[in-house]
Design brief:
36% of the residues lie in helices and 17% in strands. It is built from 16 helices and 17 strands. GO terms for molecular function: ATP binding; CTP synthase activity; identical protein binding.
Length: 473
């Protein structure tokens, strides 16, 4: 096994993840099989309880692991399926060492950062690096490791020491270090390519050959775009189009906004009414819920293609119950526990006391009730699909019959038949809600079916596509 370690300096957010992913692609293009490991030095055991505003979006793996978004980059670039163990955190390492200490594995020893924590890090890396991730039963040829944060951070030190030891263990011919750093340009001249004399100076002080110092300047790229928009990008690529995406703050659509921020309110509604399709993504909490419901109502009543993901699906159920069935107080238990018509309920197996790793997570099977629904056709008439989940609320199974009698159809359900996974509104150009997160398994060359359907419907190509696809051409 050969290892490539990518570290960062000066500041975080320089693009270590994109660099690591790109290196993996280059190695794969050379005929090598590649796996990846992301090290996050924070004390959290995983990213599940962290705010997207602070850390970025959470990515969910097949096994239910809630991990850093960089693992999503690895999966897409390399077309591999990773596990929760491909994301190492300080919390996981210390937890594993303390569990071993309690069992007596270190009996008689004083447990210390060196050698016990560093040994645990090395053992974890070498174990995970040898797990096949590309469908082949053999281990990969190369493991690309990204060390999060910046070199010099206190929390990174045990990992740097462990990786230093690992480099000697495997030998210099099997270990390559790539350091991503910032070369600032003072003044207003803007960013310049790295000059030769600058490379020579860096080489002299860093003991790195000048020919090994590469200039990677800033360029516009998709990695500045939120995860959900990339899923959309894949669908547009499949349709030979480039997406034009407008974000709408859901709270700006609400009536209160018309009074407090009338310009933002007017702009939000203008943007919504000019959209060719509407997407309401997943999320948590009650901020902007009223605006999301208004967006779903607008799309439903005006035949605008709509896709609701996770919370977005639940929003469409609430809106339908209120507007079509006349249940004015229809709501989710997440937003109003006392509502008389709780169309969205807390899952019975969920925990109300612990937040981390207590949701319905990972790859789950969804069975189609009928092959004649739009989503089944988009999935090429599959009898079932496996998609990744991340939720703790679901459609209330006791109210499904009433919702279906009113015209909303739940065309996809879990294996028990009690958990609603996909909804459609017959007669609408494209009104689809999915409880799972299809963006997690989308690939640039293999667009996710619900997103593809949304783009096709928005461009009046859906009907023709489905006819062509059914004919097998």
């Amino acid at each position: 096994m050969k290892y490539v370690l990518v570290t960062g300096g000066v500041v975080s957010g320089l693009g270590k993840g994109v660099t690591a992913s790109s290196i993996g692609v280059v190695l794969k293009a050379c005929g090598l099989r590649v796996t990846s490991i992301k090290i996050d030095p924070y004390l959290n055991t995983d990213a599940g309880t962290m705010s997207p505003f602070e850390h970025g979006e959470v990515f969910v793996l097949d096994d239910g692991g809630e991990v850093d978004l960089d693992l999503g980059n690895y999966e897409r670039f390399l077309d591999v399926t990773l596990t929760r163990d491909n994301n190492i955190t300080t919390g996981k390492i210390y937890q594993s060492v303390l569990e071993r200490e309690r069992k007596g594995d270190y009996l008689g020893k004083t447990v210390q950062v060196v050698p016990h924590i560093t040994d645990a890090i090395k053992e974890w890396i070498q174990r995970v690096a040898n797990i096949p991730v590309d469908g082949n039963n053999e281990p990969a040829d190369v493991c690309v490791i990204e060390l999060g944060g910046t070199v010099g951070d206190i929390e990174s030190m045990p990992f740097i020491e462990a990786l230093r030891q690992l480099s000697f263990t495997v030998g210099k011919e099997n270990f390559c270090l790539i350091h991503v750093s910032l070369i600032p340009v003072l003044g207003v001249v803007g960013e310049q390519p790295l000059l030769e004399n600058t490379k020579e100076k860096l080489s002299q002080f860093c003991h790195v050959p000048a020919e090994n110092i590469l200039n990677v300047h800033d360029v516009p790229n998709i990695w500045h775009v939120p995860l959900l928009l990339r899923a959309l990008l894949h669908a547009c690529i499949a349709c030979s189009m480039k997406p034009a995406i407008d974000w709408i703050a859901a709270s700006d659509l609400e009536d209160e906004s018309a009074k407090s921020t009338p310009e933002a309110h007017a702009s939000a509604w203008k943007t919504l009414k000019s959209a060719s399709c509407v997407l309401v993504p997943g999320g948590f909490g009650d901020r902007g819920i009223g605006g999301m419901i208004l967006a779903a109502k607008y799309a439903r009543e005006n035949n605008v293609p709509y896709l609701g993901i996770c919370l977005g699906m639940q929003i469409s159920v609430i809106e339908f119950a209120r507007s079509v069935l006349g249940w004015e107080d229809a709501n989710s238990e997440e937003f109003d526990e006392k509502a008389s018509n709780l169309v969205i309920k807390f899952m019975p197996e969920g925990s109300r006391t612990h937040m981390g790793n207590t949701m319905r997570l990972g790859s789950r099977k969804t069975l189609f009730k009928t092959p004649h629904c739009v989503t089944s056709k988009l999935y090429h008439n599959s009898r079932f699909v496996d998609e990744r989940h991340r939720h703790r609320y679901e459609v209330n199974p006791n109210l499904v019959n009433a919702l279906e009698d009113g015209g909303l159809k739940f065309v996809g359900r879990d294996e028990s038949g009690e958990r609603m996974e996909i909804l459609e509104l017959p007669g609408h150009p494209y009104y689809v809600g999915v409880q799972f997160h299809p963006e997690f398994k989308s690939r640039p060359g293999r667009a996710s079916a619900p997103f593809l359907g949304l783009i096709l419907a928005a461009t009046n190509q859906l009907e023709g596509y489905l006819k062509t696809d059914q004919n097998g051409s």
